[in-house]
Amino acid sequence: MLFVAEPTLGEEEKRALSEVIDQGWITMGERVSRFEREFAEKHEMQDAVAVSSCTAGLHLVMLALGIQPGDEVLVPAMTFAASVNCVLYVGARPVFVDIESLDMPLMSIDDATAKCTEKTKAIILVHYAGYLADRSRWRTFAAERGIVLIEDAAHAAGMVGAGTIGTAGVFSFYGNKNLTTAEGGMVVSEDYHLLERIRQLRAHGLTASTFQRHLNQGITYDVTMLGYNYRMDELRAALGLVQLKNLDTWNKKRRDLSLLYHKILPRDCPEIRIPFYGHPGGSAHHIMPVVLPSDSNRQQVMSKLYGMGIQTTVHYPPAHKLSLYRDLLGPTRLPWTEKFASHELTLPLHPRMTEAQVEQVSEALAEALAQISQQELADG
Ligand SMILES: *Cc1c(COP(=O)(O)O)cnc(C)c1O
Fold this sequence. Notes:
Order of helices and strands: HHEHEHEHEHEEEHHHEHHHEH
Shape: globular
CATH superfamily of the largest domain: Type I PLP-dependent aspartate aminotransferase-like (Major domain)
Bound molecules: pyridoxal-5'-phosphate
Number of strands: 9
Low-confidence stretches: none
Strand order of the largest sheet: 1-7-6-5-4-2-3
CATH topology of the largest domain: Aspartate Aminotransferase, domain 2
Number of helices: 13
């Protein structure tokens, strides 16, 4: 079975985990600090704060920026639930924004403009599939309105520039992301004070850590803000440090495979659309989305491909249609998001794939589409 995503883990990761166990200190310590420094360096940033997940990081960014009940936060609906939940955690109201088009499924600046009110305090950009949102246009948008830009950079690990467009950016190290620590995340920002607040919020709002006390630095502590336990541990940081060394190579592989898809899909399946086709900007190539013809039955295509040993998936069920958000926020119409979400199909893409497998997926997709249309003709 060829899977949509697979972690790349090996002997080096095993050795790194054994080393932590042999040394005996397993909770947040020097490895976490080193992972923060090296991750920041990789993204050409001054500093970073490691957390237990991207979701936790987004929650802390909301808290540290003082987003609160009564505030509105613009979010795309073409995203994972976490980008919406973090707004609800602090009692603020998420306001869903449409994508630009089927070819450019990133947040629409025109729709964001239309959705802005005097209550809008922040906007969460999602670098969908790893493609960076437009830096200068969004910065101007935010500056003109005095609102804060936050980046959900879950898809963009290793991409220099991700996390530097807004006030803060958060990465995910979940198992299917470009870099994984099984669970984990990282907050980056150029704002030193913001990162210090997030550092304290990550560990119960304590003024000194267990590790500092272990080192006999500061024998007691104070609690000066309501924090959480959103720490990363040494085992995960050890994994992250190994993964980080390979990230550029893996992202280059993702890029090569994506470009190959872009080259051969139009030949094999001229009826499908390829979002970001010829996109000039950078990407971490986290996933490989395509848009099926509007008259095709996606579930049938997915079943056919599965039968041929190829897993596919959907990114994402549109958030504004999910029960919780619809019940809480009322109905919203987002025409492009709805059109995109109903025909998007995510093809396998990960660094362990070969070029031959990309060819195989492209041909299988052509075959599945042909079989289904023949079947439909036969059924009249
Ligand atoms: C994976 C993902 C998240 C959540 O990341 P966790 O580390 O699992 O909390 C948030 N936003 C997007 C866009 C994601 O893809």
